[in-house]
Specification:
heterodimer, A: mainly beta, about 40% strand, B: mainly beta, seven-stranded mixed β-sheet, two-stranded antiparallel ribbon
Amino acid sequence: MPLVNGIFRENLSGGDFFPAAYAQETTKVFLHLLDVSILNPGDTTYTTYRYVDDYTPVTFNDGSGDIIYQPATFKLTLGNDDADSTPQVTLNFDSGDRTVIRRLRETDARPKVAVSVVISPYNTTGTITRREIGPISLEANEFGFKSTQVTVNLVVEPILGEPCPSSVMNPRDAPALWSGVPI
Amino acid sequence: MATQNWPADVPESPLLDGYTRQRQNSKLRTSVDAGLDKVRNRYRATPINITERYHFTNTEKQDFVTFHDDSCDGGAERFIKKNPETGIDSEYRFTAEPQYEVVGYGSDGAIWNVSLAIEIMPT
């Protein structure tokens, strides 16, 4: 999956991840943590809703305090890894209540979504202290609703349309870009 | 999370006959080109499906109907009941509508055989 490498390579923690991912049998469970931040109406602050794709809540603490992720049903699907476009991720999310849907309808700004992958032993409810992948910051560029289910198309920060700053991309600082170009 | 308790006047221990238990599947199997499938768990814990049968008197059956229909909002709410395997209180949910069958008559009226399909929620 080239897209996984493209997005995730620099965020991989190593450690338990690779042995568990490549094992024929493993006692480790891979869980996805979802941080959905929605701009409060008439404000510049965000409210963050946290979910995990498990049956029980997950407590995460990387040293900065306990964060509780509530159990929810969602599925992340990676898109194609096209050379001339930024990666896209589709999130099918059933919140179980209508809080997120109501907030999404109210907001004018793009919701921010951070995705992380963590590992936990089976049949335990202990605190998880490390993210194996992520958090990967994504923005929702479109979403649709059906009952309590939300389908969100997520993109990474759009960079392809950004101009190259002339203060950096000049012959002195980036000579290779200008080799053979008469100035 | 559960707020409803099994009604005090209704027997909490099911009949031995008809009691079954099966954990919901958590295993994720991945086929590989050669060799054995890879296996891991999808969740840290999964609910356990239970079927139970009870003998209720008419009054007990009526108390249970009130518990299911009103206290548990038609069976949508979680409830707490003693787990007959462990003797410890566990959180349950209904997975299907209870089934009531008259099996005889006593001083209180009909005697009911009640079949429940429930699940023990992971904690």
